[in-house]
């Protein structure tokens, strides 16, 4: 193709089956991972193909009631974003429909009237299986277009990378070509295909109709959607970016971007975030920010793509499993049950504050996230039990949980993407973190005060 569609690099586009476009009523973009109407390579590719075929474009999202481990907290944030998508696509004359059902089944039903089906990309096991099912059963060509990372995973590496230092040069060599903007192309045929769907005008009402876990309620501190995400990014770049490097490991501060939750739902492109940061800033703050946004985010994409058991203890590196097994019988004092941990009922006031921040806000400062996980390993009856508990809390409460970064972050607690350290009880050669170290490097007392204020705000 030779980058025929400006800004859509060849490597982002993959034919998932064979065949030429048929006589359908529209081109279908099955939007599932990249839930946004701007700087979305899959969307713009679908517009180009619709224009070539002289057809209208239908964008569709499959809304399932039982998405793995998702709760009302996750659904509410996502639905706010989908309502934002509907408004933005309407302004471009593009039809958008949200239909209840398994995403693959929704896509296949709508594919019956499609000349071509375009889908975006997800890297988790079930997301890949959905797309494989659609490609196998759809009566029309299916084209997958990557818009979730800056540089496509297979282009970066053909294997599971050891650490950030090994993947960094492999990503960096492609950045000049992939870190570019993407123009929104007008849709020529603005006929609206008549397809019924859910009403997004009242997100709370729609949420009430879904059969979802309501034990973890929505949080008022964060609003979903591209519009909200861009406001948060603008404020961060204007107010906090100048001290990002200095304060990003200082949990008592709030000099963080809060972009991970928006990236999780595809509500903002990582390319957009990087270009906005480069436009306004430079120096060490920009370097450190892009390291987190691109290298440290796309290493986990590599991990889940090339590690089939990414959500299990068995996927940990050999050295980690070996050293933790050697110390499995070490004395653990104290130990806590999952219920005690969930209630933030431990002897460690810093850990309790971190758990309270997570449960009440759906977020935890990243430095505390590391400390939090290390203590679960220290206080659990076995490393395997610690892994299960950490992943359970991560997926249940974090707004940005249940994605590639989540699985890699949890695995990092147990030695993934890390090296061996000085051997010690319980941890063996896996990295250890202590309350004393936290006190030396940050101000955890002030962090507790910050969490208290946040919880009070949430509880009204």
UniProtKB/TrEMBL annotation:
Pfam families: DNA_photolyase (PF00875). SUPFAM superfamilies: Cryptochrome/photolyase FAD-binding domain, Cryptochrome/photolyase, N-terminal domain. This is Deoxyribodipyrimidine photo-lyase. Residues 25-153 form the Photolyase/cryptochrome alpha/beta domain. InterPro entries: Crypto/Photolyase_FAD-like_sf (IPR036134), Crypto/Photolyase_N_sf (IPR036155), DNA_photolyase_N (IPR006050), Photolyase_Class-2 (IPR052219), Rossmann-like_a/b/a_fold (IPR014729). Coiled coil: none annotated. It comes from the Bacteria.
